[in-house]
Amino acid sequence: EVYFKNLSKQKQKEVMEKNGNNRKLRVCVATCNRADYSKLAPIMFGIKAEPQFFELDVVVLGSHLIDDYGNTYRMIEQDDFDIHTRLHTIVRGEDEAAMVESVGLALVKLPDVLNRLKPDIMIVHGDRFDALALATSAALMNIRILHIEGGEVSGTIDDSIRHAITKLAHYHVCCTRSAEQHLIAMCEDHDRILLAGCPSYDKLLSAKNKDYMSIIRMWLGEDVKTRDYIVALQHPVTTDIKHSIKMFELTLDALISFNKRTLVLFPNVDAGDKEMVRVMRKKGIEHHPNFRAVKHVPFDQFIQLVAHAGCMIGNSSCGVREVGAFGTPVINLGTRQTGRETGENVLHVRDADTQDKILHALQLQFGKQYPCSKIYGDGNAVPRILKFLKSIDLKEPLQKKFCFPPVKDNISQDIDHILETQSALAVDLGGTNLRVAIVSMKGEIVKKYTQLNPKTYEDRLELILKMCVEAASEAVNVNCRILGVGISTGGRVNPREGIVLHSTKLIQEWSSVDLRTPISDALHLPVWVDNDGNCAALAERKFGHGKGIENFVTLITGTGIGGGIIHQHELIHGSSFCAAELGHIVVSLDGPECLCGSQGCIEAYASGIALQREAKKLHDEDLLLVEGMSMKKEEVVSAAHLIQAAKLGNTKADSILRTAGTALGLGVVNILHTMNPSLVILSGVLASHYVNVVKDVINRQALSSVKTVDVVVSNLADPALLGAASLVLDYTTRRIY
């Protein structure tokens, strides 16, 4: 340990010598508001504590200097920091234009300050519009920028500002591993990224054991107990001001109804903040006995308040970041923090459009205690940041470099390339056949290949690869550009990983099979995999009766019975990828045995296998064949013979078909009562034989409110292949256009 400490000191000494005559690093820290000061203050204390290495200049601007927001520059003075410059940069106003004008005013005033200070490096925090002005000024004046908390994702204009500052900054201090990966993905130099954790956690993790009751009583009253009050902090969302004002109004209504002592902090300086304050005053929050409304709470005291609160509510980043360190329950409202990493203490109410939703969230969260989370830091960020600052070599070129990933040479835009048809390779793994097709964007099957499906895993995978390679080669000849491979297969599928989890008994040796990796590796194309029923639903959504329909169900009637559910234009997979196993809806408690092991499933009545079973029984009793029918001695009895017999007047065969159709109809009624779709599509070879019986059952058995549902037969010739293709074409369409 001593050796490594001495080695570190030697390295720092070498860097200082490189920077010239042991010159100190002149660091300018610019703070714009109470929130960023809570993150910058620990770094400022660290810099101040090492005067042999650093000179600190503090610039204060933004809402720090506004009385309406508590004149928070005073807490910087109370922390014994010398403020070099105060810049009044906020243009008063209530719309987006005021924020733009504030950025412009800061850009006008900052050059003179930076010319006088001549810092070696400027530390900029976060994603506020004031910070964008700071980073722009420093970058254009050739001053190195260290950006704190880059690479994070939230859900508003803050994302765009944060990433813009990232592109201007020369060095980056991030708080989480995901943020680090985002910065690398944004082509930032890995050597200039420090994963340090959040500086505020250095103070947070040592704060909870301090005396807190006096602080709670000071802000909330003498009679308040720990875990029996709420802290509320909500800001306007500048990309949807009107909705965020309405949400704040609903939040206050819910808090009034909840009837607990509540500390409400005024919002940030943003477009819409004045309207939020007016809402507070309109509801009498400042004079309500249960509420304390304040412009600002010093960070040290704020830590104690949230650490011992029964709940925090609002849309502040503090709720999803810092409060997790104490395990305090948090209710995050709206979209302002969408994308942030959170601990299990955070309950998201994304669409907080009613008072009841917010009230219910309060009832769920208030008074709970969650495990403490250290997603954003371990309490050692500042030492890491100081060490990082000491390692900066001022003699390195100022111009930052971007680490772009390698890309292939551009394909010249000749006429053949332009006229290529964008297409997908579709693979359908059935119980009998294995089919591969080239499918165009319009749903045209350009070329199709069919082989018997092998019985073993190795042979099957080898044949899939062989057929796909052959089809991909042929695609060039038919002027098709393959965008990816879509695979439709029986059984339960994890589409996220491209893995067949469990197969039906119709396809042997087909469980826990990774299809995506070997096919993607062989063809160098993206691969999507899904259940055949889901693929049929996707085919209808893109090419068939389901096009433009918000809610519909597809039922496949073939060898087995399957299906897919489209709800609000999206396919439902379920929590364990088992949604829409419609063939296994039970319609009779003592019905025939199903291949799944249960009794009375739709599939046990209405599938091709079930009809074949009944046809064999009739044939064995010499009750199948009627006048006009004949069978060869070696011919296998099938469902087709049963259907033919029914058409030629065989009453027993007709009765079996009606029973099968009735079972299917009862299953559809259950689906109508559960999902309430506007359309039911029957697909597969048996669909046309069942459709009228299904409609009759709906008229007899369904609730009147769902009887108006449309039941139609699919007009798609090959839904499994078209559905597999749509896995590819839907994704690439979204990505390209």
UniProtKB/TrEMBL annotation:
Catalytic reactions of this protein: UDP-N-acetyl-alpha-D-glucosamine + H2O = aldehydo-N-acetyl-D-mannosamine + UDP + H(+); an N-acyl-D-mannosamine + ATP = an N-acyl-D-mannosamine 6-phosphate + ADP + H(+)
Keyword Zinc recorded? yes
Which EC number applies?
2.7.1.60, 3.2.1.183
Question: Binding residues for an N-acyl-D-mannosamine, per the UniProt record?
Answer: 492, 504, 532, 581, 584, 603
The record's subcellular location field reads:
Cytoplasm, Cytosol
Q: Which InterPro entries match?
A: ATPase_NBD (IPR043129), ROK (IPR000600), UDP-GlcNAc_Epase (IPR020004), UDP_GlcNAc_Epimerase_2_dom (IPR003331)
Q: Which residues are annotated as active site?
A: 532
Keywords carried by this UniProt record: Allosteric enzyme, ATP-binding, Cytoplasm, Hydrolase, Kinase, Metal-binding, Multifunctional enzyme, Nucleotide-binding, Phosphoprotein, Transferase, Zinc
- Report the Gene3D superfamilies cross-referenced here: 3.30.420.40, Glycogen Phosphorylase B (3.40.50.2000)
Q: Name one GO molecular function term.
A: metal ion binding
Q: What is its main location?
A: cytoplasm
GO-annotated biological processes: UDP-N-acetylglucosamine metabolic process
Gene Ontology, cellular component aspect: cytosol
| Pathway this chain belongs to | Amino-sugar metabolism; N-acetylneuraminate biosynthesis
Pfam families per the UniProt record, alphabetical: Epimerase_2, ROK
Show the CDD domains listed in the entry. Answer: ASKHA_NBD_ROK_GNE, GTB_UDP-GlcNAc_2-Epimerase
**The UDP-N-acetylglucosamine 2-epimerase domain covers which part of the protein?**
53-390
Residues annotated as binding Zn(2+) are 584, 594, 596, 601
What is said about its interaction partners and assembly?
Homodimer. Homotetramer. Homohexamer. The hexameric form exhibits both enzyme activities, whereas the dimeric form only catalyzes the phosphorylation of N-acyl-D-mannosamine.
In the record, the note on similarity to other proteins reads:
In the C-terminal section; belongs to the ROK (NagC/XylR) family.
Q: Which PANTHER family match?
A: BIFUNCTIONAL UDP-N-ACETYLGLUCOSAMINE 2-EPIMERASE_N-ACETYLMANNOSAMINE KINASE, ROK (REPRESSOR, ORF, KINASE) FAMILY
Name the chain's protein: Bifunctional UDP-N-acetylglucosamine 2-epimerase/N-acetylmannosamine kinase
Lineage at the top is:
Eukaryota, Metazoa, Chordata, Craniata, Vertebrata
